[in-house]
Amino acid sequence: MAIGTLLAEEPPVAPAHRAGNMVTLSDFGAEDLGYLTLPQSAPKGGIVLVHDRYGLDDVIKSRVDALAAMGYLTLAVDLYNGRVIKPGSEASLGEIRPESSVRIIRAGARLLKTSPKLKVPQVGVIGYGVNGSVCLVAGAAETDERLLDAIVLMEGPLAPDEAVLKRLRCPVVVVASDRRNAEVEMFRLAMDERGRDCRVKLVPAMPGFLDAGAPGYSGRLSRQLLETVTADYLDAVFSRPATSPDVFDRIGDSLDKGVETVRDALK
């Protein structure tokens, strides 16, 4: 696909043309719904997508469909029980409840890993914006039941407490505005001090560039990161479960290449 086509500003796909369907998580640990899209061939792995502050809206469903088109079995969970607001609205859906949100995220991962009709061996979680930080809490909730194999935080807050970092086991990648360099570096150092795997990529864009209602939002950059950067990271982790330096070197190379492509395309 040509970069010009990939970066074109396209309106959200109309609901009637969605590739996926709403499913229930009731058999997997939560009385909630999610939006699931299946890839056309054997999946590379599974992805649980966590929406930003606007709820499980058409923007998030479009991202699910895009990830499925790339070969991932993808499920967007709903942390607001069906409520959505228009991006940019001054209304608020309120703060999520961490305990129930973790249960929903883990139920989504359990569906992807254990459902007889789906069942992928590895699952990553991608969290957007203000709700992304709960993905770290979900990763820290691992017990003998290993549900999450990677965490991707897309331009969200980075202030987990010590207990979360201490229990975290899966690798983390942070994609954030380069204007947040100090905050991101503090998080990376905190992860490093505790021996946790963390890869950071600062993007030359305004804070909020992945928030569909923020002044600095870029739909083009959002899609480019989703389709080239995030996928390359998950491919590297999923293709070799045992984390090692050369895996993260490959991840770094992919991230650098992806963002440079975006930077050139947006000139």
Description of the molecule:
By secondary structure, this protein is an alpha/beta fold. The chain has a single domain, classed as Alpha/Beta hydrolase fold, catalytic domain (Rossmann fold), CATH 3.40.50.1820. It has 8 helices and 8 strands, in the order H-E-E-E-H-E-H-E-H-E-H-E-H-E-H-H. It has helices at residues 3-6, 58-69, 98-114, 134-140, 162-167, 181-193, 219-239, 245-265; strands at residues 21-24, 33-37, 45-50, 72-77, 123-128, 150-154, 172-177, 198-203. It has an 8-stranded mixed beta sheet with strand order 1-2-4-3-5-6-7-8, sandwiched between helices. Strand 3 (45-50), helix 2 (58-69) and strand 4 (72-77) form a beta-alpha-beta unit. Helix 3 (98-114) crosses helix 4 and helix 7 runs antiparallel to helix 8. The longest helix is centred in the last third of the chain and has 21 residues, at 219-239. The radius of gyration is 17 Å and the shape is globular. The two termini are 19 Å apart. The model is unreliable at 1-11 and 242-267 (pLDDT under 50).
Draw up the topology in text:
Blueprint: H1 3-6, E1 21-24, E2 33-37, E3 45-50, H2 58-69, E4 72-77, H3 98-114, E5 123-128, H4 134-140, E6 150-154, H5 162-167, E7 172-177, H6 181-193, E8 198-203, H7 219-239, H8 245-265
Parallel strand pairs: 3-4, 3-5, 5-6, 6-7, 7-8
Antiparallel strand pairs: 1-2, 2-4
